[in-house]
Write a structure and sequence with these properties.
By secondary structure, the protein is of the alpha+beta class. The chain is built from three helices and eight strands. Bound molecules: ligand V0V and cobalt (II) ion.
Length: 145
């Protein structure tokens, strides 16, 4: 099952500007910055809290181009919440279980996510309009960071 809210993904035009906003407004601290070519994003994870099953973050997302998931989202809807990422212990097992429930999987098998995690997305049209991500944290880096 789901073990925590791992992150809330927020689409923005200017990553550096939004990082500065979250730092100065909420006092959050950047835990990681990455470019993920396969996902078409430049992203930052800002640490929010640690819990018994791992940490939670705000993920700020800037598109690498207009023809990417976040680029298309920004053109259509503007800046705002793009997806919710839930923690799972085993993303492959979660995909199998959820795929059997008539929820379309955008990823048949796990892909590379932020901070070494294994991730997979579920179609927003099958989750009440919410793009949903499953996140299996890397063993070492994410827990208790
Ligand atoms: C699109 N739609 C959304 C949505 N994006 N609804 C809710 N939340 C979103 N984020 C709606 C859109 O309004 C359309 O509905 C419909 O889905 C089809 O959208 P589209 O604009 O035609 O775009 P598509 O179909 O080409 O692509 C949409 C999907 C795509 C969701 C399939 O964005 C995707 O595969 N996303 C998964 C990968 C991703 O998002 N990567 C970036 C984050 P109407 O208007 O027809 O009703 S990477 C990340 O989080 C990482 C690395 C990490 O956490 O580690
Ligand atoms: Co994400």
């Amino acid at each position: 099952g789901l073990t925590r809210i791992d992150h809330v993904g927020i689409a923005c035009h200017d990553l550096e500007e939004k990082i500065a906003f979250y730092e100065s407004t909420f006092g959050l601290v950047v835990a990681s910055r990455e470019v993920n070519e396969a996902q078409g994003v430049k992203e930052a994870m800002l640490h929010v809290a640690d819990g018994p099953s791992g940490s939670s973050y705000v993920q700020l997302l800037e598109p690498l181009g207009p023809d990417t998931p976040v680029g298309k989202f920004l053109a259509k809807r503007g800046e705002g919440v793009h997806h919710v990422g839930y923690g799972v212990d085993d993303v492959a097992a979660a995909l199998e279980a959820i795929g059997a429930k008539h929820v379309r999987l955008l990823d048949e098998r796990p892909r590379h996510g932020s901070m070494g995690a294994s991730i997979a997305f579920l179609h927003p049209k099958d989750v009440g309009g919410v793009l949903t991500e499953l996140v299996q944290a890397a063993e070492d880096p994410r827990k208790g960071r």
